[in-house]
Amino acid sequence: MLNIDVRYQWFNQHGVDFEADYQAQLSPGLTTLLGASGEGKSTLLHLIGGFLQGSGCIQYLSQNLMTLAPYQRPVTTLFQSDNLFPQLSVWQNVGLGLATNLKLNPVQKKAVSWALERTQLTSMQAKKPEALSGGQAQRVAIARAIARAVVEQEEERKPILLLDEPFSALDPSLRAQMLMLVAELTQQLALTTLIVSHLPDEAKMVGGKLLLIEQGNVVLHDNVSILDQAENVPALTRYLNL
Amino acid sequence: MRLVFFGSMFVINMLPAMLIILVFSVVGIASFTALLLFQDLSNWYQVLSSRYIWRLLNFSLWQALLSSTLSLLIAIPVTSALMHRRFKGRDFLLQLFSISLVVPTIVAILGIVVVYGRSGWVTGVSGVELPLYGLFGILLAHVFFNMPLAVRILIQAHGLIPAGQWRLSYQLGFSRWNLFRWVEWPYLRKALPGAFLLIFMLCFSSFAVVLTLGGGPKSSTLEVAIYQALRYEFDIAKASVLSLLQVFVCTLVAFLVYRFASVYQQDFSLKRLDSFPVKDSLKARCFDLCFLCLALLILLPPFIAILTPIFSPLFITTLWQENTWLALWVSIKIAFPSAVLSLVIAMAFVVMARACMDKPGWSWLPNKLEYMGGMILVLPSLVMATGLFLLLRNLGVAAFDLAYWVVVWVNAIMALPFVLRVILPTFYQQEKRYRKLYQSLGIRGVARFRLEWPMVRQAVAQACAYALLLSLGDMSVIALFGSQGLTSLPLYLFQLIGSYRIEQGACIAVILVLLCFVLFSLCSRVIGGKRNA
Question: Which of A71, A88, A101 has its CB closest to that of B171?
Fold first, then answer.
């Protein structure tokens, strides 16, 4: 269970410009973060990932994450772009997620191979990212994320997966494939996955939960199926302009 | 098409610019031809078969290789440490790096002599006498000048690392070493060949350093040999052969520089902060500290040495001497006209280039201009001066009567690449953005200049300041053409170092540095306007 109770303030020259205040409890499984642009979806992801410092508490399995550096948190974030080091091969890019000096022990090597296999990248493991298509590149990032999520030592494991619209640059059918892959892996590996999206249809497609953000607040947290009765939910009618 | 280009109105408008460029080109080509005319085959054979030349060439290449390698070896960890750590005095260190790029060569040499020389600080403290005169001194001075240059180039390359890579490294928890290995090194590596070749070329054609610290014919370079052939042996044929040899090697190196040097972003800010903190360790801290201290140790003592004489009574005495004021006057008399000349020639190029921008078939020219300006660096100033000297002699003019104008001209030309580099982007941008507006409103000539001036004056001020500083610090052309009545501050300083009057030299160095500072700020204020002050 991931407990979120965190605030973040933006400042301008007159003082506090805008304050976000997020409260939610996420259970393992897939959750889609919806909301218009500028409402604070990515901010929440960055707060959980540790790239922004807010106040309050983020708890995972009774451990407070707020005081930890990003690399100490049980979290892997996938960004819109720049998830790979172009100077390293696919295999190395995945391996770095387990040992930053790339000196992998046999177990870790096996984990890399397994992750590449699960993402159908085994044949490309020696290639450099520039030789990959956009979808393949993001699959490498997913491979790294799942390799990190199944590490044997519990304190090293990263079972929370945050996706900040990582597939927005892909064409619709490929995007659907990638989302289905993430959904499948989330279920099989019991991950806690948060996906930022601006397409309600994507949320419907992958299922799971839905979190609607409005002006830095969580205004709705429910099953995705609620989208089918959107006209009865004020927050959704505002968001969808119904 | 060409007819349109050379339409009569166009020619009249462009006439002043064309004339200036014509004079510039004719003088350049004629000087080079004069240099070539002094060649004959037997001469070449004689020079190439002498062991002296081969030793000269050998030493020139060897010291350049060592200097550039050392500079880069220190610059890589220093760059990395500077970009990672935020500490008190970091801005000061960055300032120190930029200052050492503009401080006049001879002044810095003096600082090095005061610190490491026979009766210098190091000897005074430790009792060990360092073999300053020879390879050691040359390397020390070259590292002093070029390590900061290397750091600046590498910082630019470092800035090209996408923010996303830092974020990702932060997420994965890279240690300091792994961060360097996986992220920084691949980017820095790309900048290394260009930086290496540039520094190699600068060291290969280094003049003042080798002349002052070389300490004899054993450690001499081609550039110094040209000077000696002209100044002491009056052997023009030999100087001519040596000059061509020099140009040949420099062209070869320059060709390689342009092959390998990658294009860098303009207007790069040193203070940009987009990196995330690294996972730190004691070892990493020590490592960074060591290299930052090393950089400080190389750079700081000579600077302190330069500035200490302000408090000595000798400084007042020196101020009262007539020679000091004469040298100061000569320096100003050279620096101002050459800066103006440099700006005028650069403006002629700018005007022509802007006119070519929308002319079909000519639009390639503006983009190549900065490149072509840079090629001037291939021609060492001594070689250029030698050519001009020979040209004027062929024309029957006693060159030493015209020494002053030769010095002014060559200084102006040497500053041209830097001036162009500063003003071209600004003027091009104005043209690209507002050309159609100006055309539609029919604003031309002076009216347009008055509208544009507020937008370009900062760039012009900076270019002018560069040109001033370069001619103020010049120690090669003036060494060749200087005489009793034409002794600039750097030359005077050189003479004082040569006669071991180091203390007095230090006072002159202070005056020269102050002059540089005053003229630089004056330039920024008067030309650059209040905003720049």
Answer: A71
Q: Which residues contact A183 (CB under 8 A, 6 or more apart)?
A: A30, A206, A207, A208
Identify whether the C-beta of residue A96 lies closer than 8 Å to the C-beta of residue A147: no
The rounded distance, in Å, linking the Cα atoms of A70 and A162 is: 12
Q: CA–CA distance from B297 to each of A44, A91, B105, B287, B290 (Å)?
A: 47, 43, 18, 15, 10
The number of C-beta contacts closer than 8 angstroms across A and B is 56
Q: How far is B273 from chain A (nearest CA, A)?
A: 15
B365, with CB counted inside 10 A (0-12, 13-18, 19+), is: middle
B205: closest CA among B194, B216, B197?
B197
Chain A residue with minimum CA distance to B167: A51
Cβ atoms of A209 and A178 within 8 Å: the answer is: no
Amino acid making up residue A45: L
- Locus of tokens 């046999």: A106
pLDDT single digits (tens) B395-423: 877 655 678 888 999 999 988 888 888 88
> Rounded to an integer, what distance in angstroms lies between the CA atom of residue B514 and that of residue B331?
13
**Average model confidence (pLDDT) across chain B:** 83
- The one-letter amino acid at B5: F
CB contacts of A79 in chain B (<8 Å) are 164, 167-168
CA-based nearest distance A84→chain B, Å: 8
Burial bucket for residue A228 (CB in 10 Å: 0-12, 13-18, 19+): exposed
Q: What is the Cβ-side half-sphere exposure of residue B96, based on CA atoms within 13 angstroms?
A: 19
Tokens of A14: 């007159």
Structure tokens at B153: 């180039």
Q: What is the CA radius of gyration of chain B?
A: 24
Average pLDDT of the residues in B201-207:
87
Structure tokens at A233: 């939910």
pTM here is 0.80
Q: What is the pLDDT of residues B433-488, one digit of tens each?
A: 777 777 777 777 777 888 888 888 888 998 998 899 989 988 888 988 888 788 99
Residues of A in contact with B284 (CB under 8 A): none
Edge to edge, the sheet with strand A55-60 lists A63-64, A55-60, A2-12, A15-26, A217-223, A209-214, A29-34, A192-196, A160-164, A75-78
Q: How far is CA A169 from CA A33, A34, A172, A175, B462, in A?
A: 18, 18, 9, 8, 43
Distance from CA of B188 to the nearest CA of A (A): 12
CA angle at residue B409 from B335 to B39, to 5 degrees? 140
Residues 6+ apart with CB under 8 A from B23: none
Q: State how far the Cα of B472 lies from the Cα of B475, in Å rounded to an integer.
A: 9
Do B182 and A76 lie within an 8 Å CB cutoff? no
Kind plus residue range of the DSSP H or E element containing A187: helix A172-189
CA angle B359, B364, B370 (to 5 degrees): 120
